[in-house]
What we know:
With about 350 residues, chain A is an alpha/beta fold. Chain A has helices spanning about 50-55, 80-85, 105-115, 120-135, 150-165, 180-200, 210-215, 235-240, 245-250, 260-265, 300, 335-340; strands at about 5-15, 20-30, 35-40, 65-70, 70, 90, 170-175, 200-205, 220-225, 225-235, 305-310, 315.
Amino acid sequence: MSEATLEVEGLRKHFPVRGGVVHAVEGVSLSVAEGEVVGLVGESGSGKSTVGNCVLRLLEPTAGTIRLKGTDITHLSRRALRPLRREMHMVFQDPYSSLNPRMTNGAIVAEPLQIHGLGDGRNGLERRVAELFDQVGLNPDLRHRYPHELSGGQRQRVGLARALSVRPSLLIADEPVSALDVSVQASILNLLSDLQDELGFSCLFITHDLSIVEYFCDRVAVMYLGRIVETGTREQIFARPQHPYTQSLLSAAAVPDPSVQRSRSRIVLEGDLPSPIDPPSGCAFRTRCPLAHESLPKSEEEVPELRDVTGDGHLVACHLGRRGREVPRVADPASAGSVPDA
Amino acid sequence: MALLDVSNLSVRFDTDDGAVQAVDGVSLELEQKQVLAIVGESGCGKSVTAMSLLRLLPPSATVTGAASFDGRDLLAADESELRAIRGREISFVFQEPMTSLNPALTVQKQIGEVLRRHLDMSGDQARERTVELLDLVGIPAPRRRLGEYPHQLSGGMRQRVMIAMALACDPKVLIADEPTTALDVTIQAGILDLLRDVRERLGTAIVLITHNLGVVADIADRVVVMYAGRKVEEAEVHELFAHPQHPYTVGLLAAIPRKANGDGRRRLQEIPGIVPSLPEPPPRCTFAPRCPRADERSRSEQPPLREVRPDHHVACFHPGEEPWPEGWRT
């Protein structure tokens, strides 16, 4: 097996707050192979963005290791990290606040090239920036304009041109299209897909949107309250979701087809996400899990480990699943009766 | 007669940067117990349409056309008539439950205010009715929530409180503007179930304003698609998804990411160009500059809405379900 572009092991991130400690990330391990797109999925408060920020060292991890192309970068000083910064770049959710409003679009894209000394002189730099604009489908004349003169989709293209300017091995994309209208979102996803085919970078794609994950990602990791509860290939996760949380997440996503949507049964979760300051003992999902009673008292006492239930690398952290025994399907009698005629 | 009957509604804003025609000649009919979805992307005029009905727009807006609710003329109603209708017979649920609830009021005060104002209830009556309403919208242990403030509630709970407040006076119409957009998908599913339940149990008609076609597929009976201030298509929900006719609707449906098949990702339909902001209603199809089917006629004449399939209306000279030509660009 070739060396992974990114390897995260046992990552923890705790934030001290008044009245306790927020356990934002509680032991996350994942890897992204060369040229692979891994989707990190979860709802608000799951810790998915914190994982991304720790990998980028925008946040200092509390524990765990992060290796970028084999180099442990967990505790590298800023200076030692600098040459490696070139290897990973990010695209953020909000194209309105993630570009410096006082810089021209051209200067925004040129900045990483200058920092890493890749400009090849003023003319070389100009040429490269114009190429990058062209590559992300922007008219190179927009180099001389400012971000506020662009639409949301155009700004996200500037963000992508900037991120890819130094040819990183790893792109971390944190909800890159969720602020955009669906038709604009389509063009950015097409672009990302083309660029990824062309440049072959690895990508950690952080999102709450399952349809995008199914469309774009090779492998998927599902997070709940700071932990990965399930991970597998796209086919494994979407065809045979194991963890009751993954099952409910997939069943809750609305499909844009009324006949299909109205004939599906939906698992509606009870209650709210527990506080990450005082997470439940044992399995963090047990307070909302429709199957929790089946694994008492274990679910209250023991944190379930990620285990391969199907023998093909599909890992799930649930007491009800083990090698050779899949997690039962969550049936939802409540919703079966309330679905209107399709 | 329809419960809510809007015809030829137009809204124009006079801003410092000139005039903007936000809504141009939109007609809608909402029947009892119906869920009517108004769909479109940012700037299509869907929210402005809804807000103009209760005259919730700033003074810079000029509203023309006609809107009658239960036989009464909404656009001619005076302030006191409007106050009697707003929140009592037609109520609103907004996207951001955090900014549309008063942060300084407890749940009880928040909902109690509506009850006392519109229904003249005493404090005790209002309290009991509030508990009933919280129970109705699926808030567990409702009595315990009465003294809580919005910041103590989760996003889903806040939206449930908003809906409870909107339902307080048993309105005939609920206008929900992106009610699930700020919520996580598992919470969204619960809110959609709640809206469905409200319609079934209380018979409330719902105008659902959204950009999310999955939400529309889930709950709407009838769908209106808006583009640049105009209604471009309207049909029953199954008909619209199965046989979209307007090239904009066809493009929008093909833009939604679906599963990759085999090794390759399918390309998503892009709709090149941007939604125009129009100072004047142009005498042409507003989608023509972005449309693969546009011709001289689309560029010089406004296509009228016409019935192209049974009860399926489209404002396009070249309606049809065929997908966009591959790789088409403006």
